[in-house]
Amino acid sequence: MPTPGEANAVRLLVVEDHPLFCDALLGVIAAAFPTAEVFRAMSIDGALEILASKRSIDIILLDLSMPGTTSLLGAFRVRAAAPKSALVIVSAHDSARIVGYALALGISGYVPKSTPKTELAHSIRSILEGEVYVPKRLHGRAAAKRAGAEIQPLLRQLSFLTSQQLRVLDMICRGFQNKQIAYELGISVTTVKVHVTDVLRKLGVRSRTNAIIELSRLDLARSERSAPTTTRDSGTATQS
């Protein structure tokens, strides 16, 4: 990671498909880090291509609601492809539960899209200095800790999958059949079947349907709808 004095030389990757928000984000980066080298991707696969072709990226700013992936599974694929880069989730979701899910990935920051521009620039600087940035109102909430603990076992299972297997799993969760997966990846149907078998074995499930059900836990919109509403988290924000 660069030191604060080297912050203007950072290399950033912005993974965002919404033009207006992306332009606003790029504007904040240009103002705060005028000599930064910035790359842009509009999909998870596009981000992975950039990560594979470029030398180290300092910070990845990733929108969780990207097309062509299953919510947190896309972020997991990016995290696995660039373990030394600081991964910052930028999301329209703004709840302690979803922050907990994201933090379980080992991210360096969680920035709601409603964050003011000055605070966004500050969050990037603090992350460059090695801090983990989470809005004070969401930091340390009990709901976030519970949510993170809920998905840790699944994340451990996913860590045993190769990058190609993760991509196959993402396609399975999006309803792709073997022939479609083979076409998209440029491989044979037989090879796809091998990947599917390995994926199911590593996840400890018997069928594609079971895998989809298991991975639905990473669907943030679904998890938010199913979150308990009978009790409220009364914890207060703390700074670590």
Describe the fold and architecture.
The protein is of the alpha/beta class and 240 residues long. 50% of the residues lie in helices and 10% in strands. It has two domains: 7-142, Rossmann fold, CATH 3.40.50; 152-225, Winged helix-like DNA-binding domain superfamily/Winged helix DNA-binding domain (Arc Repressor Mutant, subunit A, Orthogonal Bundle), CATH 1.10.10.10. It has helices at 19-32, 44-53, 72-81, 96-103, 117-128, 142-158, 163-173, 178-185, 189-203, 208-215, 220-225; strands spanning 11-15, 37-41, 59-63, 86-91, 109-112. A five-stranded parallel β-sheet has the order 2-1-3-4-5, sandwiched between helices. It is globular and about 50 Å long. The chain starts with 10 loop residues before the first strand and ends in a 15-residue tail after the last helix.
Helix/strand-derived class? alpha/beta
Which CATH-level-2 architecture of the largest domain?
Answer: 3-Layer(aba) Sandwich
Q: What ranges have pLDDT less than 50 throughout 5 or more consecutive residues?
A: 1-8, 229-240
CATH superfamily of the largest domain: Response regulator
**Would you tell me which CATH topology of the largest domain applies?**
Rossmann fold
The number of distinct β-strands equals: 5
- Which descriptor suits the 3D outline? globular
- Taking the alpha carbons of the first and last residues, their distance comes to 20 Å
**Number of helices, where a helix is a run of at least 4 consecutive DSSP H or I residues:** 11
Largest sheet: 5 strands, parallel
Strand content: 5-15%
Q: In order across it, which strands form the biggest sheet?
A: 2-1-3-4-5
Q: Topology as H/E string?
A: EHEHEHEHEHHHHHHH
The overall pLDDT, averaged over residues, is 84
User: In the CATH hierarchy, what is the class of the largest domain?
Assistant: Alpha Beta
* Count of domains: 2
From the alpha-carbon coordinates, what is the Rg to the nearest angstrom? 18 Å
Helix content: 40-55%
